Amino acid sequence: MRGAMARQTALTSDLVNADTVGFQPQDVNFQDQLKAAVQSGAPLSQVSFQATTSPSLVATGGRGVNSDQVSASLAENGLQYQALAQVLGAYNNILEYAMGKK
Predict the structure, then answer these.
(1) What is the pTM of this model?
(2) Residue 52: beta bridge partners?
(3) 74: which of 13, 42, 54, 67 lies 20 to 30 Å off by Cα?
(4) By C-alpha distance, which of 33, 8, 35, 13 is closest to 25?
C-alpha cells in the first residue's frame, strides 16, 4: 500500500505541473520494486519506493505533461489501492478468526 501511495503522490505532482514547460513527469513502478525485493530476499518493510522520470507521460511536442494519460494512471492506481485494501481487510479477518476473535 505504501507503493500505491508513493505512486499517487508522484502522479498528483505530475497533474499539478501539467502546464509547466520543461517539467519531467515521474511515476512509481511499485510492482517491479516489490518483485525485485522478493527475488532478492530483502525485507518488504525496508523497500523504498522511488519515483523515476516517465517520458511516456510527457505531452505531445514535449511541452508539459499529458494530463489525460496522468488522469488515467491515477484512476488505475486508485483501483489497485482499493483492491489492496480489500485483500488486507480479508487477511485481517482471517487472522482474527484464527485467533478466535470472530
Answers:
(1) 0.76
(2) 27
(3) 42
(4) 13
Tell me the residue length of the chain: 102
pLDDT band at 48 (very low <50, low <70, confident <90, very high): confident
CA distances from 30 to 36, 39, 48, 98 (A): 10, 14, 9, 31
In whole angstroms, what is the distance from residue 10 CA to residue 13 CA? 5
Beta strands per DSSP E along 1-102: 26-27, 52-53
Q: What DSSP string describes 39-73?
A: HHT--GGG-----EE-GGGBPGGGSSB-HHHHHHH
Which residues are registered as beta bridge partners of 46?
A: none
CA dist., res. 55 & res. 92, Å (int):
39
Total count of domains within the chain: 1
Q: What are phi and psi of 44, to 5 degrees?
A: -65, -25
pLDDT of 20 reads 83
Range of the structural domain that residue 94 is part of: 2-98
